[in-house]
Amino acid sequence: MEKKKHLSIVIVCLSILLCSIVYLLMQRLSVDSKRAGSLLDLRNLDFVQIERVDHSIKNEKGNLIAITYYEKPVLTGESDVHAKISDYFKNECQAFFFGETRINFDGERKYTNFEEKVIKSNLELEEHHFYNTVDTEVAFCENDILSFVKKTYWAVGGVEPRYEFGVTFDMHTGELITIDQFIDLDINDFRKIIGDFASDRLKHWDYESKIDYLQETLWNMDYKDYEYYYDGAAVYILLHNVVFSNECYELRWDLKTGDVSDEYVNVK
Questions:
Q1: Measured distance CA(104)–CA(229) in Å, rounded
Q2: Sign of CA dihedral 208, 220, 104, 79
Q3: Cα–Cα dist 190/157, whole Å
Q4: Who's near 158: CB < 8 A, 6+ residues apart?
Q5: Ramachandran region of residue 157, left (φ > 0), alpha (ψ -120 to 50) or beta?
């Protein structure tokens, strides 16, 4: 009889303990789910839509002569963070057509100047169009990080610059993430690694005359000035005009090994 009584007490205690554990787990899951609400949404890229804002130009005959557009990411849903990121691209899109963003090609890339240049140059550009475009892609979307790469193209005869720009967001806050959030190095050490690698490349290609300009440019840049995008394993550092004229030189920094490489791995 005494044994049954003790057994009953043990069972009751275990039941209470089990209920307490379940309650604590439910509380923890509730807190985590609130914090990771954006992360759960990130499992499905349907919440990111790329809308093309097209301001292409036609001549008096109604024929297309110049293609100009900006591909604008729009994050759907009622999240304040989604709205904040959407507003970032909305503002950049509006500014792009007036040449007021970092992704614009020099001062001449203002939309009004571009339009005037197109119309005054040749109204019969029906076979060889002028271009002023931004194509946007999602580079990474997971672990509370959302990263985009934007590819720009400018062509009005002569030089045709092709650049890439990156932007990465913290999905908890909607704030931009600078590259030093991924690379834990003193800025001077970071500059030296990037500068030494790119300088070696220039030597291989007999472009040693560009090295001084490259080094000067890098040493005048802070972490916040570096263009990059992130793919989950590496950051891709985007350098404009310091290695190739009117082109983007892309360096891959492996976040696990710290190795730096580029697409010209077989070039000696």
A1: 18
A2: positive
A3: 38
A4: none
A5: left
Q: Which CATH architecture has domain 47-175?
A: 2-Layer Sandwich (3.30)
The tokens for 75 are 């994050």
Structure confidence by residue, pLDDT tens digits, 62-77:
878 888 899 999 998 8
List all residues 6 or more positions away from 233 whose beta carbon is below 8 Å from its beta carbon: 254, 255, 256
Tokens describing residue 5: 């009584």
b/e 90-107 (16+ beta carbons within 10 angstroms → b): bebbebbbebebebbbee
Task: Give the domain ranges of the chain.
Answer: 2-35, 47-175, 180-261
Question: What does the block give as tokens for 147?
Answer: 């990263």
Radius of gyration of the chain (CA): 26
Q: Where does the pLDDT of residue 23 fall: very low under 50, low under 70, confident under 90, or very high at 90 and above?
A: very low
**Contact indicator for 57, 122 with CB cutoff of 8 Å:** no
Mean pLDDT throughout 155-184?
89
